[in-house]
């Protein structure tokens, strides 16, 4: 049930068919034997789309470094009619992803719920920024239609693009629910933390319908953003066309609480330090 990797650098640059690590059995753990995340490096060399794919419940990824995936270093997704839960990503360092560092989305109704990302470092540096494709499609953590996630005590840095607006350091949208984002440090990201995005689109529908009287899109339902620190000072970020957009953004985020956060920047953000948009962004500040 536990795979322990000896210290060293592992070449995962042979493509998805040969090098992607697929976790399709529940209860399996991948971690370093030493517990030192910097001593075990899995390098996709921008040749393998995903380094770790999670398709089963109660999978743990811990204490190692993942770098240079062509798309997502870690991707969690349930299958059609087969939702999963209990994903734990702990003390993982992610360096220079080609798209999002950690991606969570369902295959139809194969939702990924009640999971945790904690004590990780997710970083995009100048060298990695040149590999971003698809209209600045990058970000730290990006989750669709997920319920009950806890994201805490992570360091996320550098998610901005030279010629366009990247996604957030932490982003939960398309009908995510009950997300807790707390005690994270987000440095030099074009957008810090986001619940929801846009005024239109599709979102997850919950059988209990927590707000039956609210029509239209609910980009995020309930949840809390608390005790985070978002800061921006990089000259390259401010020189890009969209600059520092916002520290905390709520778009069609119904019932969210945003409390005890700090947002600091050496230049004024393009939008606001904390901003909310659209009719369904009914929040507590």
Structure overview:
The protein has 285 residues and is mainly beta. The protein contains 3 helices and 32 strands. The chain has helices at 16-19, 126-129, 235-239, and strands at residues 2-5, 8-11, 21-23, 29-32, 40-43, 50-54, 60-62, 65-67, 72-76, 84-85, 88-90, 93-95, 100-104, 112-113, 116-118, 121-123, 139-144, 150-152, 155-157, 168-173, 176-177, 180-182, 185-187, 191-195, 220-221, 224-226, 229-232, 246-251, 253-254, 257-259, 262-265, 272-277. Strands 1-4-7-11-15-18-22-26-30 form a 9-stranded parallel beta sheet, with no helix packed on it. It is globular and about 50 Å long. The mean pLDDT is 95.
Q: What distinguishing features does this structure have?
A:
3 helices; 285 residues; nine-stranded parallel β-sheet; mainly beta; 41% strand
């Amino acid at each position: 049930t536990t795979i322990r990797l000896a210290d060293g650098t592992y070449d995962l640059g042979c493509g998805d068919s040969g090098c992607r690590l697929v976790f399709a059995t529940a209860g399996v753990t991948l971690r370093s034997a030493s517990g030192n995340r910097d001593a075990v490096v899995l390098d996709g060399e921008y040749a393998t789309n995903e380094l770790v794919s999670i398709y089963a419940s109660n999978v743990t990824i811990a204490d190692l470094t993942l770098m240079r995936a062509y798309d997502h270093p870690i991707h969690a997704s349930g299958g059609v009619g087969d939702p999963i839960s209990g994903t734990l990503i702990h003390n993982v360092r992610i360096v220079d992803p080609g798209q999002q560092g950690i991606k969570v989305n369902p295959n139809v109704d194969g939702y990924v719920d009640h999971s945790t990302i904690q004590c990780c470092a997710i970083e995009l540096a100048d060298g990695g920024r040149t590999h971003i494709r698809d209209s600045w499609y990058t970000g730290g953590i990006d989750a669709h239609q997920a319920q009950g996630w806890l994201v805490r005590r992570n360091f996320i840095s550098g998610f901005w693009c030279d010629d366009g607006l990247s996604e957030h350091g932490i982003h939960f949208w398309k009908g995510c629910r009950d997300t807790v984002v707390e005690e994270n440090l987000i440095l030099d990201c074009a957008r810090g933390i986001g619940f929801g995005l846009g005024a239109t689109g599709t979102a997850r529908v919950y059988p209990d319908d927590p707000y039956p009287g609210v029509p239209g899109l609910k980009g995020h339902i309930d949840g809390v953003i608390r005790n985070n620190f978002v800061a921006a000072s990089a000259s390259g970020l401010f020189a890009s066309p969209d600059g520092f957009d916002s520290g905390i953004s709520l778009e069609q985020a119904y019932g969210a609480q945003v409390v005890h956060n700090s947002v600091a920047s050496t230049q004024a953000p393009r939008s606001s330090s904390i901003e909310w948009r659209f009719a369904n962004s009914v929040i507590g500040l």
